[in-house]
Design goal:
The structure holds two protein chains of two kinds. By secondary structure, chain A is mainly alpha-helical. Helices cover 64% and strands 2% of the residues of chain A. Chain A has a two-stranded antiparallel ribbon with strand order 1-2. In chain A, strands 3-4 form a two-stranded antiparallel sheet. By secondary structure, chain B is mostly helical. Chain B has two domains: 8-37; 41-187, no CATH class. Chain B is built from eight helices and five strands. In chain B, helix 6 packs across helix 7 (151-161) and helix 7 packs across helix 8 (177-187). The radius of gyration of chain B is 22 Å and the shape is extended. Classes of the chains: A mainly alpha, B mainly alpha.
Chain lengths: 569, 189
């Protein structure tokens, strides 16, 4: 670890901090239906979209109507993407003449992008045509992110309003998220990315004659346009197999900064928008503080663990000064790789700029643990906010139990019905992650997929289901995931992690919206102060983390101890 | 749910046109018009022929060139059409044996242990264009011998090619292997 490394990390967080307020205020305007400086250009497009699709933008939906609209839209997106991948050979812009994507891989990939997971069982540059990348993956990068934002906004309205039955209109929120937030930011970021060296061409590849006279085929494509929305939408699905470790996705320290800034800003700013929309900005900052404390702790532990190097390699004659370099790029080093790893998993981005599977036991435990906390630090665009609000409700409930008062959050009474749905939601993760991991660890053909035996093998399986259930998408890449078993079960994990989580959450929103918003009294537990922030962090760690501890002890913890003892497998 | 079908399918179609075709093709048009060199992969030409990309590592095996890091791409190293890391865990016996073999191989060429970590580890992409200044400097005696140059000449060339962190703090110190080898060739073919 170096001072310069810490400075790099601090500067990035400072940049995000500066972006939170302006972006948060802008998004609050967008989702309140107000005019913005982009309205002269975008309002006619928006109106046109509503006309062709038969949407009345002034008609609001109940929680159930909103949820059903979201589910139907996700289904339509899934069918379109699945069809596109299966028919790839007959579609245009396929310069390498790639054949149809096999059905299990197409299912996995379509689910992966519709749920904002972007788990990569496909290897971009050797499987997918430019058309599939652009009209398929890039589109779902926009739409799954806009869907997450819409859901978060609906939940926000439930807390902002008093005694209502409606939460807004899904179609309007989703279209406005795409048009006013994601698209303009993507255009900006994509052009800066090209200036930083990311390719943007419809050519498939170029062949170079190397200095030693060999032919080197270099894959190209419309990388910058996809990379921009991949980060802004916290999707994480790469154009290339190795994602943002590839020099064409992430050529310099500057592009690495922009990558992280792009993925972190919207999620963090949306929490500010929440504070603005419920009329309590301090509440927004309180949630942001809790997120930041846990996230920075994650960065610090990963950075420390990776900077120590691998003692097993030190023993065979490697200098530990550069840290654990297997799977990492020289231009990023330990600080920028640790920062990326913690942010991508505290969020639900899932892009990587180094191979998490080659991290030390402890360094790899952190990304896994951050995902198991529910990806609320600050989480995927939208999904992080509603996930965090569920934890906030649980926190006031626990606080209420301790002092024997009816728990309240922002003037809404929290009662048995909300708690039942909240528990249903938070129990999805352990059920899916631990359930599928346990089954896979006992099936010989599933175990055959692991890349490194010993405790790391268990970590590979555990990481895969953690990442998919959490809709993250990063991987311990040693696991050969492109098999029918993993394509199918990881696909199911992604579906449950997204939809089985969000339906109870929306039911909570419906129930909260109907309640009276009571003014705070002397007996109200303030939810925007340091006491609440501390309580919230405790609840996240206990509820989110503790249930995974036995599994983590068998995987990454044992691996770390084995590494320190010099044992190999 | 049925009343949602029309907006769902129509919006998927119109948003696909907007975000999947109009958006990337617009970026493509602007990028190709304004920044064609970067948009086409930052290629380096020598005597009119493309010799590689400034951003993508390539393999060097001859003693007269600086070597890059080991690469985990298949079937051969530095396959820029199929990026890949090794994904081996820290406790992998395969990783330890591979690194030990590379340490032994480099020792034969005159390098001494402890080796710079990047000299014997594979990168995340398998296409890392850079090596650390330490690894570059450790290769100077071999190159000087193979090319019949003074070690001090080669060492000063390495020094010129070291790219430091931007504004002292952003990024890591590194050397682009292809650029270094091109400079070496320009000095002495």
């Amino acid at each position: 670890m170096t001072t310069i490394g810490w400075l790099q990390i601090s500067l990035l967080f400072l940049a995000v901090l500066l972006a939170i307020k302006p972006l948060g205020l802008y998004m609050a305007r967008v989702f309140s239906g107000e005019r913005t400086f982009l309205s002269p250009v975008l309002a006619p497009v928006e109106g046109g979209f509503y006309r062709v699709s038969g949407v009345d933008p002034n008609k609001e939906q109940s929680w159930l109507g909103y949820t059903l609209a979201m589910l139907t839209f996700s289904l339509a997106g899934f069918l379109a993407l699945y069809a596109m991948l299966r028919l790839q050979a007959h579609l245009p812009l396929n310069p390498q003449d790639y054949p149809a994507v096999p059905s299990d891989l197409a299912f996995n990939t379509a689910v992966s992008f519709v749920t904002n997971t972007n788990w990569q069982n496909y290897a971009g540059e050797t499987t997918l045509s430019h058309f599939s990348q652009m009209a398929g993956l890039t589109v779902q990068n926009f739409l799954s992110a806009a869907t997450g934002m819409a859901l978060a906004v609906a939940f926000t309205r439930a807390l902002a309003r008093s005694k209502v039955t409606t939460l807004g209109n899904f179609w309007v929120d989703m279209v406005r998220a795409t048009l006013y937030v994601l698209l303009p930011l993507s255009i900006m970021v994509a052009l800066v990315f090209v200036a930083m060296g990311l390719p943007q061409t419809l050519e498939a590849s170029v062949t170079a004659k190397t200095l030693e006279g060999a032919n080197q085929v270099i894959s190209l494509g419309p990388v910058a346009s996809q990379e921009a929305i991949k980060q802004l939408g916290t999707n994480g699905g790469g154009f290339f197999n190795v994602n943002a470790a590839h020099p064409f996705e992430n050529p310099t320290a500057w592009s690495n900064y922009l990558n992280i800034l792009a993925m972190l800003s919207i999620s963090a700013a949306l929490v500010y928008s929440f504070g603005q929309m419920v009329g309590n900005r301090r509440q927004g900052w309180a949630l942001i503080s809790a997120m930041a404390i846990l996230l920075i702790a994650g960065v610090a532990i990963t950075y420390w663990a990776e900077a120590q190097g691998n003692p097993i390699l030190t023993a065979v004659g490697v200098d530990p000064a550069l840290g654990n370099m297997e799977g990492k790029e020289v231009r990023f080093g330990q600080a920028m790789t640790a920062l990326y790893a913690a942010v991508t998993t505290g969020l639900s981005d899932g892009g990587v700029n180094g191979m998490h599977g080659s991290f030390t036991g402890l360094g790899g435990l952190v990304p896994m643990f951050l995902m198991q906390l529910g990806e609320v630090l600050p989480g995927g665009v939208g999904s992080g906010l509603y996930g965090m609000l569920v934890f906030a409700l649980l926190s006031v409930f626990v606080a209420g139990l301790m002092v024997g008062r009816t728990p309240e959050f922002l003037g809404k009474k929290i009662e048995g019905r909300e708690m039942t749905f909240a528990m249903l939601a938070v129990l999805i993760l352990p059920l899916v992650i631990l359930g599928f991991t346990a089954v896979s660890a006992m099936l010989p053909f599933a175990v055959a997929s692991i890349g490194t035996s010993g405790p790391h093998g268990l970590s590979e399986i555990l990481y895969a289901y953690t990442s998919t259930a959490g809709n993250n998408g990063s991987a311990f890449g040693g696991l050969t995931g492109n098999t029918p078993w993993y394509n199918t079960t990881l696909g199911i994990a992604m579906l449950l992690g997204r939809f089985a989580y969000v339906v109870p959450v929306m039911a909570i929103a419906g129930s909260l919206a109907a309640k009276v918003k009571a003014p705070a009294s002397a007996g109200t537990f303030p939810t925007d102060g340091p006491l609440f922030v501390g309580l919230l962090i405790g609840i996240i760690l206990i509820l989110g983390g503790l249930q995974f501890f036995p599994a983590l002890a068998l995987g990454p913890v044992v691996e770390h101890l084995a590494m320190l003892a010099g044992q190999t497998f | 749910m049925l009343n949602h079908l029309r907006p769902a399918f129509t919006l998927v179609v119109v948003l696909t046109v907007l975000t999947g075709l109009v958006y990337p093709l617009t970026i493509n048009g602007i990028a190709q018009a304004v920044m064609p060199a970067k948009a086409n992969g930052s290629l380096i030409e020598r005597d009119g022929a493309v010799v590689g990309s400034m951003l993508i590592g390539q393999n060097f095996m001859a003693d007269r060139y600086f070597w890059p890091r080991p690469s985990a791409t298949g079937p051969g190293p530095y396959n820029a059409a199929a990026s890949s890391g090794s994904n081996l865990g820290t406790t992998s016996a395969k990783l330890r044996d591979r690194v030990a073999a590379d340490v032994a191989r480099l020792k034969v060429t005159g390098m001494t242990s402890p080796m710079p970590a990047d000299a014997v580890t594979t990168s995340g992409s398998g296409l890392d264009p850079h090596i650390s200044p330490a690894f570059a400097e450790a290769q100077v005696p071999r190159i000087a011998l193979a090319r019949g140059l003074e070690p001090a000449v080669v060492a000063s060339l390495v020094k010129q090619q070291i790219e430091g962190p931007a504004f002292v703090i952003i990024g890591e110190a590194r050397v682009n292997v292809l650029k270094l080898n091109l400079a070496l060739d320009a000095l002495n073919m």
